[in-house]
Design brief:
Blueprint (H helix, E strand, L loop, with lengths): L8 H10 L5 H33 L16 H19 L1 H6 L1 H19 L5 H27 L7 H12 L2 H12 L9 H19 L7 H6 L3 H19 L28 H22 L2 H7 L4 H12 L1 H9 L8 H20 L4 H28 L6 H53 L8 H5 L8
Helix pairs in contact: 1-11, 2-6, 2-7, 2-8, 2-9, 3-6, 3-18, 5-6, 5-9, 6-18, 7-15, 7-17, 8-9, 8-14, 12-16, 12-17, 12-18, 13-14, 14-17, 15-17, 16-17, 16-18
């Protein structure tokens, strides 16, 4: 006799979510979650902006005496990304075990405390240690934000939603550049300006934490955990609000996709069903951050290397940084029209091309224009890649899987700063961007050849593998 598998509770929740129109209720949830990533972005993009201030205080130097020296800016970058690697590799599993909302909140408090302590340290080793501790919290936070959003929005709007989320998340980039431009030359209350830039980020994050207490748990996660009644009550509340806001009855859910109801384990990402995706995303993540952070973290330093004065450098960086929140807004026009994997590839191609062009410019006008185009490509890569990797694994292991593959981007960036510092010293700015272009080529090949398509497909459909039938 044939035994047919029935749709899981999580798959039924997915079917109910995927038929919802994008009304104020859904966009409010997206906004609140996006605010969670606001100060995480602030912390990551802090590096390039406060670097000139730390150079002036003689805490760090632009280059190092030896490849892995701890007195150079590269060690400050490495400390953050070592923490991010630990957080994404070993602690994102907590979001699959304890829930998106709980881990989402705890990780932000962790970051606030560690960053505030770092602001008052005076030696490279102490600053690097607390930067590392803050990085662990940020690593967990970023993966949880991506997982959370992918599970709360309908399938037809995931691209647009991630573009909006990234636009909100990137608002700190021009803000931190502006604060550094204004505060770096000053010392309010006897504290160097760069320290105030750090303090503002940590205190502001506590305010966002209070706002986020309004967030519900992911109904998909609740259903996957067997808490079906809670998931149903939450879905009914969301459906009632959305129906009232849309002014018409909700459409009937599509038939849910049958999904494996078992609890997830890390080992599952290496099963035949997901092994190629895991390897593809691990390789892509390892190399994509060489381009992304190779530019983002080093813009002021690269401009200084071109002979541009520090004050002008921070002004140029501030202007260029506006592309981060603006481009994702523009991309909402095509975020769900162009297949996600090709968006990743096209953005990497743009990073390589504009990076090489940037390397050979010396005049302010071309530097700002090409730097802005390069930044647009960075923003495009960020929201398309963050969206793409959350779509490729099932709910039961989504945070665990994304944490694993994403951790390799953090691992590579631990060493990227040291290599860029050495290349900058030996081969100048052109050498740095040739290095970046080579890394982007690897990402294009890996995603272009092995990446599956995801647009307009439900999360369960994308990650679905046929269950065995028994006679």
């Amino acid at each position: 006799m044939e035994v047919r598998a029935l749709p899981s509770a999580a798959a039924e929740v997915t079917a109910r979510l995927d038929r919802l129109p994008m009304t104020r209720t859904i966009w409010t949830l997206v906004l609140l979650i996006s605010l969670g990533g606001w100060f995480d972005t602030y912390a990551i993009f802090l590096t390039g902006s406060i670097a000139p201030g730390m150079f002036a205080d003689k805490i760090f130097t632009p280059t190092t005496v030896s490849l892995f020296g701890f007195t150079g800016l590269a060690s400050f970058i490495a400390a953050l990304f070592a923490g991010l690697f630990i957080g994404t590799m070993f602690f994102t599993q907590m979001a699959d075990r304890f829930g998106r909302r709980t881990v989402f909140t705890v990780s932000l408090v962790w970051y606030c405390i560690a960053t505030l302590i770092m602001a008052f340290q005076t030696t490279p080793n102490a600053i690097n240690f607390w930067r590392f501790v803050a990085g662990v919290g940020i690593g967990v936070e970023l993966v949880t934000v991506d997982t959370y959003i992918s599970e709360l929005v309908p399938k037809r709007a995931r691209g647009r939603t991630f573009a909006i989320q990234q636009s909100i998340g990137f608002l700190p980039v021009p803000l931190v550049a502006f604060l550094a431009w204004v505060l770096n030359p000053t010392a309010p209350l006897g504290l160097s300006g760069w320290r105030w830039v750090v303090i503002i980020g940590s205190v502001g994050a506590l305010l966002v934490w209070i706002v986020r207490l309004r967030l519900p748990e992911s109904p998909r996660w609740l259903a996957q955990q067997g808490r079906v009644d809670e998931a149903d009550r939450l879905m009914c509340a969301i459906e009632d609000k959305v129906a009232a806001e849309s002014g018409r009855p909700l459409p009937a859910p599509e038939p849910p996709v049958i999904e494996d109801p078992r609890k997830g384990r890390l080992a599952e990402i290496f099963s035949p069903a997901y092994r190629s995706r895991t390897i593809m995303l691990s390789v892509a993540n390892f190399f994509q951050t060489i381009g992304f952070y190779g530019f983002a973290n080093w813009v002021p330093t690269l401009l200084i290397s071109k002979g541009i004065h520090v004050s002008q450098t921070l002004e140029y960086a501030f202007i260029i940084a506006f592309a981060y929140p603006i481009f994702p807004l523009l991309s909402t026009l095509f975020a769900d029209r162009i297949e996600r994997k090709w968006q990743v590839c096209l953005s990497c191609l743009g990073i390589a091309v504009f990076g090489v062009l940037f390397a050979f410019q010396t005049q302010p006008g071309p530097l700002i224009v090409i730097g802005t185009l390069q930044t647009m490509m960075n923003a495009w890569l960020s929201f398309s890649a963050h969206n793409y990797q959350t779509e490729l694994f099932p709910t039961r292991i989504r945070a665990t899987a994304v944490g694993f593959v994403y951790s390799w981007s953090r691992f590579s960036t631990i060493f990227t700063g040291f290599f860029i510092a050495a290349i900058l010293q030996g081969f100048g700015v052109p050498g740095v961007f040739l290095f970046i272009a080579s890394a982007m080529a690897v990402v294009i090949l890996s995603v272009g050849i092995w990446g599956p398509r995801t647009n307009h497909r439900s999360l369960e459909e994308i990650s679905h593998t046929p269950l065995l039938q028994t006679q």
